[in-house]
TrEMBL record:
PROSITE patterns: ATP_P_PHORIBOSYLTR. One of its GO terms (cellular component) is cytoplasm. Residues 55-220 form the ATP phosphoribosyltransferase catalytic domain. Keywords: Amino-acid biosynthesis, Glycosyltransferase, Histidine biosynthesis, Transferase. This is ATP phosphoribosyltransferase. It comes from Devosia oryzisoli.
Length: 236
């Protein structure tokens, strides 16, 4: 029997929604070893092995090809590989986990409404303040690519793994690149998204590893995709 390895978010906001999504398609994901076990199963489908990983590790392992299928945010695929979605096979958008990766500046920067204004600020920053403009983010790849496209090179990235929106007020950085859905965290921290500051629109997606769709796994993919309503969506 050919086995498919499916990775499911182990924590965070995507965990429950992913399990709900599969359940609504008749696949009940179980965690026989309890909440702290990282191995799972699908009821009635012994040919599927479930592994629980943080969403960011699912992106990494899909790109490496150590798992066959996984659910993660599109933002994390873009962030984990310079090649973005080309580094994996997209199987379906799951219509939850909608959020945008954005550039946001302090409300007080009233003259800065677009990326071209930010380009002016960045090029003057050093002469005015004696240092580069600093961007707090965990989205280093996405920021570099987007700022290069906008012609902005004069900045420094301050890597931030949590509470990124606090960085400008605490003096750790000047602006942020972060993910947002309701916008309330940015607003609560006195930050405003530039009018052309949406860098990426993300949602949770099902991806397959490029190396996974082999001849001997093809039937297993077809059976699973039939069951979850992604008929004809076998990536190739
Ligand atoms: N505010 C949000 N609204 C909707 N989706 C979000 C939001 N924040 C994050 N996401 C999506 O969920 C994914 C995982 O975010 P989450 O914060 O749950 O990550 P995690 O890996 O569990 O946590 P950590 O970053 O602390 O390890 C993000 O990459 C993004 O696709
Ligand atoms: O636009 P909003 O609805 O305010 O959401 C934005 C927040 O959501 C995410 O954090 P999360 O809540 O996942 O926690 P984290 O900061 O620990 O990653 C993200 O990092 C933002 O901080």
């Amino acid at each position: 029997m050919t086995t498919l390895t499916l990775a499911v978010p182990s924590k965070g906001r995507l965990e429950e929604l992913t399990r709900d999504w599969f359940a609504s398609r008749g696949l009940t994901i179980t965690r026989p070893g309890g909440a702290r076990s990282y191995l799972g199963a699908v009821e009635g489908a012994p040919d599927i092995t479930v592994r629980f990983f943080p969403a960011s590790e699912i992106a990494r392992e899909l790109i490496r090809g150590t798992i066959d299928l996984g659910v993660t945010g599109l933002d994390l695929i873009h962030e984990t590989s310079e090649q973005g979605p080309q580094s994996v096979l997209a199987a379906g958008e799951l219509d939850f986990g909608h959020a945008d990766v954005v550039v946001a500046v302090p409300d007080a920067w009233i003259d800065v409404t677009h990326m071209h204004d930010l380009a002016d600020v960045a090029s003057d920053f050093r002469s005015r303040h004696g240092r580069w403009m600093r961007i707090a983010t965990k989205y280093v790849t996405i920021t570099r690519q987007h700022f290069a496209r906008a012609g902005i090179a004069e900045y420094r990235i301050v890597e931030s793994l949590g509470a990124t929106e606090a960085a400008p007020a605490s003096g750790v950085a000047d602006i942020v690149v972060d993910i947002t859905s309701t916008g309330s965290t940015l607003a609560a921290n006195g930050l405003r998204v530039l009018e052309d500051g949406v860098m990426l629109k993300s949602q949770a997606c099902l991806f397959a590893a490029r190396a996974a769709v082999t001849e001997n796994k093809r039937d297993a993919f077809i059976a699973l995709f039939e069951q979850i309503g992604l008929h004809g969506r076998i990536p190739s």
